[in-house]
Design brief:
This protein is α/β, with parallel strands linked by helices and about 525 residues long. It contains 19 helices and 21 strands. The strands form three sheets. A nine-stranded parallel β-sheet has the order 7-6-5-4-3-2-1-8-9. It has a six-stranded mixed β-sheet with strand order 11-10-12-14-15-13, sandwiched between helices. It has a six-stranded parallel β-sheet with strand order 18-17-16-19-20-21, sandwiched between helices.
Amino acid sequence: MTLLTIPIVAKTLQSAFSQITYASQCAGDCIELRLDLFDEPISPEDVTHLVTTAKQSSLAVIVTCRPIWEGGRYDGCEENRFLLLQSGANGGADYIDIELIALENDGEIFLPLLDHPNIDVIVSNHNFDTLPDDFEARLSRMDKYRGVIRKLAYMPADITESFSALDSLYQAQQSGQPQIAMAMGESGLISRLLAKKLSAKVAFASLTVQQASALGQVDVVRMDALYLWSKQNKDTLIYGVIGAPIGHSMSPAIHNGAFLETNFNGLYIPLLVAPTQAVFDQFMDNIVARPWLGMRGFSVTIPHKQHALDYIISHGGHVEPLAKRIAAVNTIIIDDKGVLSAFNTDYSGSLDAICEVMSIVRSDFKGLPVAIMGAGGVARALVAGLVDNGAKVTICNRTIATAQQLAASFDCAYGDMDAIYDIDAKLIINCTSLGMHPNTDNTSVSSDYFKKDMAVFDTVYNPQETRFLREAKAAGCKTIDGVSMFVNQAADQFKMFTGLDAPKTIMRKVVEANL
């Protein structure tokens, strides 16, 4: 069993007791009493009181007093630190955390805790700068102290260095050895979110967003509500969104909400992959080499859509024909034999959203005059889908050369942004970022351009109703919001991931709630 552990990071005893009470009402299994974080020195009697209070709940208790030289705040003598930890053990704590270096340098002080009859000892080592070159050697040094729980935490340079923690947990899982291994920071989030699947002894989740005891900790509410902690097990299949940046993505909320609604044993996580082809390739190589992770699919967002296409092609995977024409993929599937396939659901999600509002089918696009503002990745997907279905597309973009280049790829017309006023379009699509939060007063066309017989689509989904859509609606146009596109493309991905029909109503509610 992996103990979801909430660190108590109080500065005063009164605050510590309040945090313990709150933690006992959360979805955690254990609390960690960080004795080194108090503003004023505490006594062994205080520690005993804290532990006995915590034990009145059903939570297990870890007692930690981290010294400055290991990233904590304790700056007293080691003899006094031993007395604090011993008081925790005598007061009924389940685990005591002692640093590997403390045992190696001051073993005569701390070794008695290893023989305490009522506690388990966590032997820990932290590196807040890099992945240690001697990662395995540090774990081997911990093995000198038999019967302990090994813990190693470090700061990865990027997500590819997080695989050392995952490998270590997997090896410990196979051998049955209790272990804690984690990569810190946003790049290391994968090691925290997969800790339960890989049977880590402990995973940490902060009491609130503001009360994290280390970089990269997720608060306990989101750990369960967003990342489905209580639903996870060894057989959970893993999916995720690859991008940089990625912290803002609503994809984990929408997909995990859909998994929960359909009772599908999956977990969808954010994956911060540095914005180069080399790091993307290294990340994918690591995934393919570890089938035991149960990674079955990814959404791909900026800036990796071209990187994903190039990777799949170079590794002999399947790429759907239209995704090749678009020259970008936003969906990767890995089957149970490790075969890679790539798709683009941006265009299908967009076309479906348009068809739903205009009450048409795709064959009705033939000959339809369409004006598209913007020439980026989303515009490229829409141009490809519309042209493929026979629409008469004109691309309007601030940079004429970019519009011309995109138009040449799909044999359609182009112009600058003002060219839209000379187009008698029946469908107008904004693929620029104009009007996106927080710059919600911006819009891509003048309000007097809109006519009642037009359909108007904005790919911006935050806010849900942009000024562009609001003014179009006031003119009597049919309007299509970016949320519809986002939900549709995610629903197509969900179907590919699971083989199940997507609960689109729930998915839309999740997006709207997050907005």
